[in-house]
């Protein structure tokens, strides 16, 4: 108790008026600037990592292509010659020349052409798959976060009530189920065993004959084909969010300012949204962004099980064919998506939450 | 009352032993107890079960994809082998690879987390930056790329790769715990006695986190099994042994999941993995409640 009444000795630069610092130093140490630097560093790190990882692996795109050509009856030398002519990759070029060329591509968003289909641009190819993954994963996360946060808050409000006692085991049950196995179970039980729906019609991203465009037929069909993946993502992450939100809300509810708000006679919903909800959700925002990264990675499995042609299957295919530019571009684009989502979340959180300092004190 | 006060050891020095807390937490929470039993049951089934089944498994082309019968409880698979026997033989590998992977992840996380949390300063900043960087990389993609490139990996290498890609989140929570523990009185006392940093970290601070580390380990097994089974399911790991992930992969790659006679071959491993994961999570969460005093008092 006495410890609180004795003020700690002020540290230089944190208490009182801080000594003025040069503008450049202030910008350099600014929280937002720090985070942006860090995000750029991360993207560079991932880019460099995938570049070297790809080249350290046994076999290069020419080997793979030559291997496929020998299967069609050519001699090894013939196949090798043709493969070297087709594949736009020079295995003899030194690594730093390749690296420089590659990094220039990263900075200018130009990843060149594919190695396995030399006439197709890498970015065009990825763009055929990426939106579908982002769409299904994003929708799943959105549903899970809304349901999870809402239900979690109610669980905390009615702590030890019937609702809480029913939902808590369900939530930890859901948190334990791997999304791709849930997807498999839904298909096997729902479609093959019970015949509730036809999985054959739901495979793929669109029904045959449906054109891409902003109309009801397209949107409806896209949603129909995405139901299973979205369900798998949403259900498996909702449980975790319920528990997290319940814990966060319970913690906030014991804070003094909530007591004060109650004492002031504010209405229940106002306390719920302005005082508790906002303060409970804010610290969770970075976690929501991180969850996105885990999910995008895990999408490979869900998409494989559900035959949903997103980025996952494409990535696997390009690894098998050692299509370096596609592998690199996919990894960089996905990592950047996650890094930028994180960055936005952190910056937003620091805007909304005064406890995260924007100035140049220690991070 | 006074007697109890006299008997009670000073609270900051010796909290109740971790083993006691774990036991109390387990027996007090029905869901945690059930989770523990499920985990124990599946582990026994997978490691002791193989001694009791006939592992010769003859192929029999006249019995391809037969439904369940008295002779074959869960039917037969695409080579006419008994599904139930395969199910029993298939559990050990994912469980031990997952455990080893979790062990690797925890080891790295505890080591780096303790150093970062204890010393702080620029070392801490560097390590935090490293975790921030690794955390944002979609981990499964990274794992996938490494595993897919190096075909024919031995199981131990798979476990190490999974461990090396899943440590960052754990490292952060361990760092936070170390940071809070090192402000306690017993660490001050150890510092006053001029004990070395290594001794303070490993003998004074980490034993107090044993419960927390144990819970993290249990939850890490969960993540590792997700990854390991997933890699088998994608057909990326060498086919050496019977394995739950492989069972699902076989059913999927041969489109057997559309054949209702083949359903036991998919559903049996699915049920086992899902049950095991749920068991681990409920076990882990109720232990967490038992071991985390902040949660306990509410």
UniProtKB/TrEMBL annotation, chain A:
Gene Ontology CC entries for this record: plasma membrane
Record's keyword terms, sorted: Cell membrane, Membrane, Transmembrane, Transmembrane helix, Transport
GO term, biological process aspect, one: transmembrane transport
Sequence ranges assigned to domain ABC transmembrane type-1 in this UniProt record: 130-345
Biased composition (Pro residues): 7-21
Transmembrane segments: 39-57, 132-157, 177-202, 222-243, 288-306, 326-349
Name by which UniProt lists this protein: ABC transporter permease
Source organism per UniProt: Natronoglycomyces albus
UniProtKB/TrEMBL annotation, chain B:
Membrane topology: Multi-pass membrane protein
All copies of domain ABC transmembrane type-1, residue ranges: 95-284
Keyword Signal: no
Compartment list: Cell membrane
Annotated keywords: Cell membrane, Membrane, Transmembrane, Transmembrane helix, Transport
One Pfam family, short name: BPD_transp_1
SUPFAM superfamilies: MetI-like
Single GO cellular component term: plasma membrane
InterPro entries: BP-dependent_transpt_permease, MetI-like, MetI-like_sf
Transmembrane segments: 33-53, 95-118, 130-150, 156-174, 209-234, 262-284
Record's keyword annotation contains Ligase: no
Highest taxon in the source lineage: Bacteria
Biological process, per Gene Ontology: transmembrane transport
Family from the record: Belongs to the binding-protein-dependent transport system permease family.
Protein's name according to its UniProt entry: ABC transporter permease
